[in-house]
Amino acid sequence: RLERIWLLLGTGSLVVFLIILGVMACGLGLNPPGHMHTIVPEQVKTTAPFDKPALTQIGPNEYKASMIAEAFAFTPGEIAIPRGAKVHFEITSPDVVHGLLIPNTNVNIMVVPGHVTEFEYTFKKSGDYAMLCHEYCGIGHHMMMGKLVVQ
Ligand code: CUA
Predict the structure, then answer these.
(1) Predicted complex: ipTM over 0.85
(2) Is the CB of 98 under 6 A from ligand 1?
(3) How far does CA 19 lie from the centroid of its chain?
(4) Ligand 1: distance of its center to the CA of 137 in Å?
């Protein structure tokens, strides 16, 4: 009987330990809910919404940009939005690590194969913005750029 109690205590403390580990992992930002999820890289281009990467309006002057970064281009490569638009970026890669940097904003995203990274930004100033890959990704890295126009 005593053994059974010890066994229960052992199992109980293991469960508590695992829960603590899980909470810590979330706290460290390894897997914050709603901010990152994963897809097998080979399946990125057949998994919604990345099978049809696009800008979609989700509210009054609020948009979602579902994007793919792939050697050596962004899809969509050109985005046009009205001034003041809030854009929720969700971006992933089917091949290697890329980046998405938009100068003059704080958009600075690392794009890891199979990981969906989310970031939001409100474009308060009109103008042409560059979307640049800032992680070395191969021979065409320096040509990997898109355009974002705020009207
Ligand atoms: Cu993609 Cu550098």
Answers:
(1) yes
(2) yes
(3) 26
(4) 4
Domain boundaries, the chain: 1-33, 36-150
Return the DSSP state at 14.
H
What is the chain's pLDDT, residue by residue, as a tens digit (151 residues)?
Answer: 778 878 888 887 877 777 767 766 655 555 444 455 899 999 999 999 999 999 999 999 999 999 999 999 999 999 999 999 999 999 999 999 999 999 999 999 999 999 999 999 999 999 999 999 999 999 999 999 999 999 9
E strand or H helix at 148: strand 145-150
Whole-structure pTM value: 0.76
Q: Is the CB of 138 under 6 A from ligand 1?
A: no
Pocket of ligand 1 contains residue 144 by CB under 6 Å: yes
Instruction: Tell me which residue has its CA closest to atom 1 in ligand 1.
Output: 98
3-state helix/strand/coil string of 32-58: CCCCEEECCHHHHHHCCCCCCCEEEEE
Tokens representing residue 141 in the block: 């890295």
Classify domain 36-150 by CATH number.
2.60.40.420
Nearest-10 Cα torsion for 103, 108, 114, 118: -110
